[in-house]
Amino acid sequence: MTFQDLNLIAPLLSALSKQGYSEPTPIQEKAIPSILQGNDIFGCAQTGTGKTAAFALPILQFLHAKKASGNNNTGIKALILAPTRELALQINESFSAYGSNLQIRHMVIFGGVSQHSQINALRKGVDIVVATPGRLLDLMNQGHVRLNAVEYLVLDEADQMLDMGFINDIKKIIARLPAKRQTVFFSATAPVEIKRLADSMLRNPVNVNITPVTATANLIKQAVYYVSQEKKKPLLSHLLKDDSIANALVFTRTKHGADKVVKDLNRNGIKAEAIHGNKSQNARERALKGFKSKAIRVLVATDIASRGIDVDKLTHVINFEIPEQAETYVHRIGRTGRAGESGTAWSFCNSEERIYLKNIHKLIKKDIDVIKSHPFS
Length: 377
Ligand code: AMP
What we know:
It is a single chain. Helix 2 runs parallel beside helix 3 (about 50-70), helix 3 crosses helix 4 and helix 13 (about 325-335) crosses helix 14 (about 355-365). This protein is elongated. The strands form two sheets. The protein has a seven-stranded parallel β-sheet, with helices on both faces. A seven-stranded parallel β-sheet has the order 10-11-9-12-13-8-14, sandwiched between helices. It is of the alpha/beta class. Helix content is about 40%, strand content about 15%. The chain contains 14 helices and 14 strands. The protein has helices at about 10-20, 25-35, 50-70, 85-100, 115-125, 135-140, 160-165, 165-175, 190-200, 230-240, 255-265, 280-290, 325-335, 355-365; strands at about 40-45, 80, 105-110, 130, 150-155, 180-185, 205-210, 220-225, 250, 270-275, 300, 315-320, 345-350, 370. It has two domains: about 5-210, Rossmann fold; about 220-370, Rossmann fold, CATH 3.40.50. Bound molecules: adenosine monophosphate. Adenosine monophosphate binds near residues 25, 50 and 53.
């Protein structure tokens, strides 16, 4: 399939070829025609699937058609909500790239910086606003943003927004939008709270799911350590004392668990940092930067906080707990062994977690080696 087959207009097609995109990704193939037909979308997809273009291209096409037909309504016509400043900036850059041949004005709004330039940009008039919920609501309450002309709403990484405690802000923002609008809802996972939120916002949505690639799991050296819950921390310190481990991303199920693991590692002389939704944006950025630059050797993360973490030459992924969803396992270990590099994934499994391990075996269609000889077996 080509982008032409998706009925995109010429200015978008030429922008895409300038980006070097030769064909649509699976999510783009599924979502773009459906959005262009006016449907609401419930999309389950991770970063890296090309989901930004999947919603940005149809929105640019709609807004361009409106302008071309002489509709010069001022006011914000599309609103994109994203959980973090980095993601909001990235989406805004995507609008610049894909909209480079169109006269559609867009801007980004996020907290932690002065609001003056954001207010000035709003005054000049914009068609598309990409925003994090907190600052947007703040500007709305001060009377700087009116959302009564919004026709397209996108929620990106909805599960992360819930994890970061944005649910009430999101509800307040949505209450101020016209009821008649088209809504695109993206989330990497679909737990009950997410389904409930989506149900409250979407009208007869079309479901678009991108299932994870299990193939990568075959290229990574995987092993499991059977160990009781109490002995997991000593086992982790024991393994990480091996200096030949260049860097390791350790996954815990909870934020509290991540903090406890970091504390224990530090006590044992192993420098580690945690990254999760309770940490400030600055703390998370600092930890991530340190890990990427190899200044920090061990990063302990929850699944949602680790989303989008793409580290060059990550040698080890360690599952401190076995994830309940087998797909999560595949996503986690897929962080290592990228671009033909070798990667290792270790999983700590207590007796209650064996059932999850069984499901993982079923999904990846192979057994994982068991390391029997370790001091905490
Ligand atoms: P996203 O999942 O939206 O964050 O996109 C992941 C990456 O894929 C970004 O760097 C995009 O620029 C890139 N990308 C998006 N669509 C395509 C495509 N059709 N072909 C090649 N690269 C793409």
